[in-house]
Amino acid sequence: MELECAKARELKNKLSAHQDTISTLKQQKDAQIKLYKTREDKEIEKVIDLENKVKVLDNIVYKTGQSVQMMKMLNNKCQTSFAKPENLKKAKQANPRLYDICCYNDNLALMLSPDSDE
């Protein structure tokens, strides 16, 4: 009988040791899961931030491309000067008021002036 009691105590001790091991392993497992979840959340946030930055930079590149395209279109279609200076002189002689810059500057000054009577 004493032998059976000793075996029972030994088995109880082994059982409690195994239960302690199981509880520490569960705690370690939970700690690892929590650590990996926080790391994963941080990585997901980084990916989202990088995707947002890519969208912003793509938008900038798109707008820059549109601006360059518009400038090329305007430069090709609109000529701001006469190809030959003689043609400019003839145009000034035909309609001098059109090419009189002082006239436009005076009107612009009158329009922008707050005390203007006109």
Task: Write up this protein.
The chain has a domain at 82-118. The chain has helices at residues 2-77, 85-94, 101-112. The protein has three helices and no strands. The model has no long low-confidence stretch (mean pLDDT 81).
Task: Offer a few descriptive terms.
118 residues, rod-shaped, mainly alpha, 0% strand, single chain, 83% helix
What is shown here, in short?
With 118 residues, the chain is mainly alpha-helical. It has three helices and no strands.
Topology:
Layout: H1 2-77, H2 85-94, H3 101-112
> What would you call the shape?
rod-shaped
DSSP summary: helix tally:
3
Q: How many angstroms separate the termini? A: 124 Å
Q: Which percent band covers the strand fraction?
A: under 5%
Q: Radius of gyration, rounded?
A: 43 Å
| Rounded average pLDDT | 81
Number of strands: 0
Unreliable runs, pLDDT <50, ≥5 residues?
none
